[in-house]
Amino acid sequence: MDKFIQHQGVAAPMLQSNIDTDAIIPSREMKRVSKDGLGEGLFAGWRYTLPGGRELTTDFILNKAEYANTTILLAGDNFGCGSSREHAVWALKEYGVKVVIASGFGTIFYNNCIRNGILPVQLSYETIVGLAEQVQAQPQENQLAVNLQETWIEAPSGERFTFDIEPERKTMLIEGLDVIDVTLKLTDKIKHFQQNYQLTYPWLN
Amino acid sequence: MANTLFEKIWQSHVIENLDDGAGLIYIDRVFLHERTGSIALKSLEADNRKVVSPEQVFCTMDHIVDTFPGRTDKTTMPSGEDFIIATREASHNAGINLFDVNDPLQGIVHVISPELGIVQPGATLVCPDSHTCSQGALGALAWGIGSSEAEHALATKTLRVTKPKNMKVEFYGKLSFGVTAKDMILHLIGEYSAAGGAGYMVEFCGEAVENLEIEARLTLCNMAVEFSAFSGIIAPDQKAIEYLAGRKYAPKGENWNKAVKYWQSLFTDTDAVFDKVIRIDCQKIYPTITWGNSPQHTCAINSVVPTPDDNCDENQLKTLNKAMQYMDVSVGTKLTELSIDGAFIGSCTNSRISDLRLAAQLLKGKKVASGVKAICVPGSTSVKKQAEEEGLDKIFIAAGFEWRESGCSMCFNAGGESFGFQHRVVTTTNRNFESRQGPQTRSHLASPVTVAASAIAGRIADPREYI
Ligand code: SF4
C-alpha cells in the first residue's frame, strides 16, 4: 500500500450530513468483481445527467473547473454511512482523493479508508465550515495542507488544526503497511489463544 | 467487576490489547455474499493467502441473484452472472460452506444465519455487509466490515477492532396496537438522529424488547447501523435458547448443554455502567414512516412532514430541502395523502415468516389498488416454503402481489430490476437513500403492516385502519 505522510491539494466542500456510500458509488456502478475501474462511478448519481450515462451535470461541485484535481473532500456529519461497500473507498482512491475531512464518519467507511491508504480526519463541524469558506474563495489557490506525521491540517490562512488518530492506524498509513502481514506476525499468540478458547467454548469449533 | 453484556463478549475474545483500546479480536464465524465476498475471496487468492478455518466460513447468494421464479445464474443485473460464478468458484477453492442459488438453505445472509443457528449467543460473527448487526438479536457480537477486513478475518481468524463505547437503549412500557419492532427502531433514529449511535455498541433492553419474539428482535437490531452504531445486541433469554434449539448448525448433545449454561451467563450485570443511556416510552411510539432520504427523516404515520428545528444551520436546512425536493413533499405534507406506485415486502429487515404472516393477515380477502406494483420477497428459501405450507403465498397472489424467490431483490438497485423513475414506494427495507431502489425512486420505510395497508389503499395508509 502507498505510504501517506503529508499532502497538499484542492479541497471540495460537500457539507451536507449523512452522505452515504450509495451516493459515493451507486450499486449499479459496481460492475466487475474487482477493486479497479470504480473511479468513473464516483458520485455517479450527482455527477452525471442520467443513470448509467456519462454526460456531466453542471451543478455538481467536482464537475466545476475551479475544483479540478480535487484530492481532499470537506464533509459534514456521518460521511460514508450506510452500506459497507468498500467500493466507495476504492472509487475515491481511483478518482484521486487522498484525504476526507468530516465532522463524523460511518465506522465501516472509516476503517475502509485506513485499509486503503486514504486519510480520514475528524474535525469539528465549525472548523470544517471555516475551512470550506476559505477554500471556496479560490479553490485552486487556496489549498489545504495535511501532515499526518504531525497530525495537523493547515488552512490557506496559515492557521493549523490538529486532529486525533489512533497511533496504530497512523503507523499503518505512514508506513503503508499491509495489515494482514502485521497480524500474521502474531500467529503464535493467536494459536495459543485459540487452543484455550476451543477448550472453553467447544461448541463453537 | 460488573460488566455489560458487550464487555463480557469482548473480553472473552481479546487476544491482545493493541494501542488505545483497540483489540485483536478472535472471530468465530465469517459470512460472505456474492456481492462483496467474491472480491474478498478472489483478492485473498491473488495474494496467495488461505482461509484459515474454512469450516467456519459461510457464503450465500442473495444480493445479485434474481428473485423471479425459475431463476438461474443469469440475472437482470448487468454482469451479475460474473459475480455469481466468481463466488461459486472462489468458495469451492477455499472450501467454505456455500448456499448456492438453488440450495434449499439459500437466503439473505442475515435471515439464514439465525435460521440455521450459525450465529450464536456470545460468539463473534462478521460479514462484509453493514446489516450484520441484525444478528446481535441472538446475543452475538456481530458487525459489518469492509472487504479488506473480511480478507483479514479469513486469513487470520482475527480482526483489529477499535473498542466501541457502551450504550443502553431501553424501551419501557408496552407497544400500542399496530406498532412493531420496525416502528421502534425508526422512532429511535428519528428522535436521536442517524448518527445518534456513532461510536457505540448499543444494547437494546426493556420490557418491550423482552416481549418481542426473536424475529422481531432481528428487525430491531437490523437498523442499528442506520443509527450509526457499531452494532446492536440483545441479551439472550429463554426465547433465544428455544429459538436456536435443533437448528442445523446449533450445538448438539453435550455441547448444547454446555452452550446453554454459558449463554445463561450472558447479560449485563445490574450495576454495570453504560457510557450513555437512552430511555424510550413505548406509549409514545406510533406506526412510523420516513418522509425523506435519511432514516432519521421520520414521522408518525398520521402526521405531516415536520418543520425543521430552529437550531438547524444552513447546511442542515439544505439537506432537508434537498430531501423534500427529491421526495416531492414539503413541510406540512400529510403522509397519508401521498399516492404510491409501489409496495415492497422483503429484505433482511422484514422478510421473515412472522413479517409475512402479519402482512398476509391484513391482505386476506383484499386487493392491491390498481396501478400499484406490489412485491413480496421471502427472506429465505425456507421462509418461502413455510409460507407456502401455510397458504400465505395464495393470499399475497390473490391480493395482487408478486410472489418471489428469496433474495435481496429490490431492496437495492444494481442496475437490474427496479421501481420506476420517481416512483413512490412504501417499503419494509432499511434504506431510503436517493436512488436506492432504482433511479430517482422515492422510498418510504415502514413496517410490513403499513406497507400492506398502503398497497391496498393505493396511498400511504395507517395500518391501524386495516388490521
Ligand atoms: S436485504 Fe438489502 S439491506 Fe439486507 S443485506 Fe440485502 S441488500 Fe443489504
Descriptive notes:
In chain A, β3 (99-102), α4 (107-115) and β4 (119-122) form a beta-alpha-beta unit. Chain A has helices spanning 21-24, 44-47, 87-95, 107-115, 125-137, 167-175, 179-184, 187-200, and strands at residues 6-14, 70-75, 99-102, 119-122, 144-147, 152-154, 160-162. The mean pLDDT of chain A is 95. Chain A is globular, with a radius of gyration of 19 Å. Chain A is of the alpha/beta class. Chain A starts with 5 loop residues before the first strand and ends in a 5-residue tail after the last helix. The longest helix of chain A is centred in the C-terminal third of the chain and has 14 residues, at 187-200. Chain A has a single domain (6-204), classed as Alpha-Beta Barrel (Aconitase, domain 4), CATH 3.20.19. Chain B is α/β, with parallel strands linked by helices. Chain B folds into 2 domains: 1-286, 2-Layer Sandwich (Aconitase, domain 3), CATH 3.30.499; 301-465, Aconitase, domain 3 (2-Layer Sandwich), CATH 3.30.499.10. Chain B has 15 helices and 19 strands. In chain B, the strands form 5 sheets. Chain B has a 5-stranded parallel β-sheet, covered by helices on one side. Chain B has a 5-stranded parallel β-sheet with strand order 17-16-15-18-19, covered by helices on one side. Chain B has a 4-stranded parallel β-sheet with strand order 11-10-9-12. In chain B, β15 (342-345), α12 (353-363) and β16 form a beta-alpha-beta unit. The longest helix of chain B has 15 residues, at 80-94. Chain B is globular, with a radius of gyration of 21 Å. Chain B starts with a helix and ends in a 10-residue tail after the last helix. The relative contact order of chain B is 0.13. The model of chain B has no long low-confidence stretch (mean pLDDT 96). At the A-B interface, α4, α7 and α8 of A face β2, α2, α3, α5 and β8 of B. The structure holds iron/sulfur cluster. The site of iron/sulfur cluster has 12 residues of chain B, from loops.
Task: Summarize the helices and strands and which ones pair or pack.
The complex is a heterodimer of chains A (205) and B (467).
Chain A: E1 6-14, H1 21-24, H2 44-47, E2 70-75, H3 87-95, E3 99-102, H4 107-115, E4 119-122, H5 125-137, E5 144-147, E6 152-154, E7 160-162, H6 167-175, H7 179-184, H8 187-200
Parallel strand pairs in A: 1-2, 2-3, 3-4
Antiparallel strand pairs in A: 1-5, 5-6, 6-7
Chain B: H1 5-13, E1 14-17, E2 22-26, E3 29-33, H2 37-46, E4 57-60, H3 80-94, E5 97-99, H4 109-115, E6 124-127, E7 141-144, H5 147-156, E8 158-162, E9 165-172, H6 181-192, E10 200-205, H7 207-211, H8 214-222, E11 231-233, H9 238-244, H10 253-263, E12 276-281, E13 288-290, E14 298-300, H11 314-327, E15 342-345, H12 353-363, E16 373-376, H13 381-389, H14 392-399, E17 402-403, E18 424-427, E19 442-445, H15 448-457
Parallel strand pairs in B: 3-4, 3-6, 4-5, 6-7, 9-10, 9-12, 10-11, 15-16, 15-18, 16-17, 18-19
Antiparallel strand pairs in B: 1-2, 2-8, 13-14
Helix pairs in contact in B: 2-3, 2-5, 6-8, 12-14, 12-15
Iron/sulfur cluster (SF4) binds next to loops of chain B.
